[in-house]
Amino acid sequence: FWEKGGGIMTKPVLRSLRHYTRWGVFLHTEQYFLGRSYVWRLQGGKIDLLDLPPRELDELLVALQDVRRAFTRAFNHHGESDGEDLVNYAWLCNHENHGHHGHMHVITRYRKSRKFAGRVFQDGLWGQNYAPYPKQTLPVEVLDEIAEAMRHALL
User: Which of 46, 98, 132, 136 has its CA at 20 to 30 Å from residue 121's CA atom?
Assistant: First the structure.
């Protein structure tokens, strides 16, 4: 999530995938789960998921459905209710470093490995909680390829 400048984490690296009126979709920098993204509330401030105004909640659901469809288009992920894969959703606003800003993590869970950008992505935690997970650093070029695949799939 953070870019290094002189060895110090200085600023976030945001790979924007799509914007809605009230939400933005971004690729998470950590791609242990291929395609992992988050939907960021464009209006600032801490808010509980159940306190979102109806219009924001409706648009969040549209964005989440679009992201789930994009996983299928980009990575042959089948997270719908009758599919072999899963999607985990986590609403967070607990980090002080982003002002307790409300956002939904959308975490792909794959029953079988996927090949993308010359790499194999294997969900070694299948059937368990997604966190904690092994951290990995992917080359910027791979993250850019994943982002581009998601952008194209979100059209």
Answer: 98
Q: What are phi and psi of 123, to 5 degrees?
A: -85, 90
- Do residues 101 and 41 touch, judged by C-beta distance below 8 A? yes
Angle, in degrees to the nearest 10, between helices 140-153 and 54-75: 110
Whether 22 shows a pLDDT value over 90: the answer reads yes
pTM: 0.87
pLDDT bin (cut points 50, 70, 90) of residue 9 is: very low
